[in-house]
Design a protein that fits this description.
31% helix, alpha/beta, VC0802-like
Length: 378
């Protein structure tokens, strides 16, 4: 059994642990920033292909005690990197630390890079090249106060890069965070789902892919394909397997936005992801559009001060949004992901849930409002 660590957006770790267990991971343990687990290479491939929540899957290749940069160099040089990848593969090193005594993470990164290169040069007389932009192999180090660990990245590009996005929009929501929000909403596949501020369509794509059992990694490559341990026959077999049950119920997915450029991005993304047939897009203002069904689920990532618009403009917008929801969406469960903590107060609605999540380093909340006509007022 190999040891792995799957990173994830902060706040989604318990959701990821449950997902990894369903995918065959053993001993999945959520910690801040991700989930540690064990498994064979079949499990690693499956997690990369099917995880909707993980950002990366890292393979642990060494653990060590250290006090200074020389200890770090010796620990990295002790790993037989030639067993893991070829000298023809270019690579890069990334270092993250928590309470590390080292003064410079850049210098720590350089020492690990030197150790990897020296190990190759000693054995072969040549060394692999470094490519910081699109390397074949990514080496990750995580340093705590007195101990560290070295990992090889089995994902390559982050897993939220599904391979279908064609337009970025002004501030796209990362796909794995969108998938986590959809799951946290409790949306059932036979319920109507509306994103009335859909932007580039990320939430709708992720919802449709879940409902239809589409593997999120089906349209992309992975870092493990560059490693010596790679088993191409096993990988081909896994890609042909259906690991998730899909819903055959008719999907009722709706999206709208008042920005025609955002809608064009959304249409391109839906087509690239192969889900456009299940999603109805319209140009509409969120304050004016009617509910597409008597009851359902709204999931949206509205603009907020750090992203779009001024705080004063939002202070004027939120009361109108709250009034529109009470007027048009009685019977709906509404989920809004935002960094603006003023939102419930300004909407004059009492949230039934407020879940802390992070969009990168930005602390956000997922607010749930159960809309009942004439109630839920503060």
């Amino acid at each position: 059994m190999e040891q792995f660590f799957a990173t994830a957006p902060r706040g989604l770790e318990p959701l990821l642990a449950d997902e990894l267990t369903r995918l065959g991971a053993q001993g999945a343990r959520a910690v801040p920033g991700g989930v540690a687990f064990s498994g064979d290479w079949r499990t690693c491939y499956r997690v990369n292909l099917w995880s909707r929540i993980a950002s990366r899957v890292l393979w642990r290749v060494a653990g060590f005690a250290y006090r200074d940069e020389m200890d770090l160099y010796e620990a990295a040089r002790a790993v037989n990197w030639l067993d893991h990848f070829s000298v023809e593969n270019d690579f890069r090193v990334s270092v993250a630390a928590q309470k590390s005594p080292l003064k410079s993470l850049d210098f720590a990164t350089l020492r690990i890079k030197d150790a990897v290169c020296d190990r190759f040069r000693d054995a072969l007389g040549s060394r692999p090249d470094v490519d910081r932009a699109r390397p074949d192999v990514r080496v990750h180090a995580f340093l705590e106060a007195a101990r560290g660990a070295l990992y090889l990245d089995t994902s390559g590009e982050p897993l939220f890069k599904r391979g279908w996005r064609s337009g970025g929009g002004e501030a796209p929501l990362r796909e794995n965070l969108a998938a986590g929000i959809v799951r946290l909403s409790g949306w059932k596949f036979d319920e109507p789902l509306l994103d009335p501020m859909c932007g580039a369509g990320t939430i709708l794509v992720e919802a449709a892919a879940m409902a239809r059992g589409r593997a999120p990694g089906a349209k992309r490559g992975f870092g493990f394909e560059k490693l010596r341990v790679f088993d191409s026959a096993l990988w081909q077999k896994l890609k042909n397997e259906k690991q998730e049950p899909k819903s055959d119920a008719p999907l009722q997915l709706f999206g709208s936005d008042n920005d025609p450029r955002a809608l064009n991005d959304a249409r391109r993304n839906l087509a690239a992801a192969g889900v456009e047939r299940w999603i109805k897009l319209d140009r509409a203002d969120v304050l004016e559009r009617a509910a597409p069904a008597p009851a359902g689920v709204i999931i949206a990532n509205p603009p907020y001060g750090e992203r779009l618009g001024s705080k004063q403009a939002l202070a004027e917008f939120y009361p109108k949004l709250g009034a529109a929801l009470k007027r048009k969406y009685a019977g709906w469960r509404c989920h809004f992901f935002t960094a603006d903590q003023r939102m419930p107060t300004l909407m004059r609605l009492q949230p039934s849930r407020r879940l802390p999540l992070f969009n990168g380093a930005l602390e956000c909340r997922l607010f749930e409002f159960v809309i009942v006509a004439g109630s839920n007022r503060r």
